[in-house]
Design brief:
The protein has 258 residues and is of the alpha/beta class. Helices cover 39% and strands 14% of the residues. The chain is built from ten helices and seven strands. It has a seven-stranded mixed sheet with strand order 2-1-5-4-3-6-7. The longest helix is centred in the last third of the chain and has 21 residues. The radius of gyration is 30 Å and the shape is globular. 28% of the residues are buried.
Length: 258
């Protein structure tokens, strides 16, 4: 007779298999560093606010240091302190290109009415002092061109492109640091922003200039054309030519930086 043996039962206190850590707990340990998170942490949970029209900014250190086409170091606070009422900065992508030449010449031709209330006008780009000196000389610009190769001031006033580049636009700040205007636009549109500001202050826009002023502008254009015919092409854009190509330049702004 065969004796049947009982099968041993597994002990009740056998060790349980280890559970794998969930992927969520692993990922929670290592999160990428974020400049936004750092800003929020440093400011007690509040993200730095982008300046807007109507805000009053602290001019001290705002936008860092830039230099003129002559190589003189300066900053926005010094520019505002040296003005009577405030500063107009118009940004342009690249000196001596069609759209930027049109824009610079429009500010040149309307310099007197645009500065009548005490605003100081400056062009601002990331071009080198040499490029801006050539640009200023060829176009006979009566205002200073600012060089911002690191785009610190350009970024601070909201006119930088990501990841690289410059938006054509205009920024106006008062003597007290109040932002009066800050918007992108084509060559003619940037001038129009300043026209509206000075018109509110009692200075008529160029559309309302008298017959004598219009005749003077026409004579300036005729003289420039005569000089070009005698001396050769100097690349200067007369007022009437600048006005004709303004619309084309605005369309090009929607594509390449010119």
């Amino acid at each position: 007779m065969v004796e049947l043996r009982k099968r041993r039962e597994a002990p009740s206190d056998a060790p349980q298999p280890r559970q794998k850590k969930s992927s969520s707990s692993v990922n929670a340990k290592a999160e990428p560093w974020s400049s936004e998170a750092a800003t929020s942490s440093n400011n007690g949970g509040e993200t730095a606010k982008k300046p807007a029209v109507g805000d009053t900014i602290d001019l001290e250190g705002f936008g860092g240091e830039v230099e003129s086409q002559d190589g003189a170091k300066t900053n926005l606070k010094e520019l505002v302190d040296g003005s009577k009422s405030g500063v107009v900065l118009f940004t342009y992508p690249k000196a001596s290109t069609p759209g930027c030449t049109t824009q610079a010449c429009l500010f040149r031709d309307e310099f007197t009415p645009l500065t009548a209330t005490g605003y100081s006008i400056f062009g601002l780009s990331s071009d080198s002092p040499k490029s801006n000196t050539t640009f200023k000389t060829k176009q006979r610009l009566q205002y200073t061109l600012l060089c911002d190769p690191r785009a610190t001031l350009i970024s601070a006033i909201g006119m930088s492109k990501s990841p690289k580049g410059i938006v054509r636009g205009v920024f106006v700040v008062s003597k007290a640091g109040r932002i009066e205007a800050m918007e992108p636009g084509g060559p003619a549109a940037t001038v129009e922003v300043v026209r509206k500001l000075v018109k509110v202050s009692g200075v008529p826009s160029s559309e309302n200039l008298g017959v004598e002023a219009k005749e003077a502008a026409k004579n300036e254009s005729d003289n420039a054309e005569t000089n070009n015919a005698i001396e050769g092409d100097t690349d200067e854009v007369p007022a009437d030519v600048a006005a004709e190509v303004a619309d084309t330049a605005e369309k090009l702004d929607g594509g390449a930086d010119v």
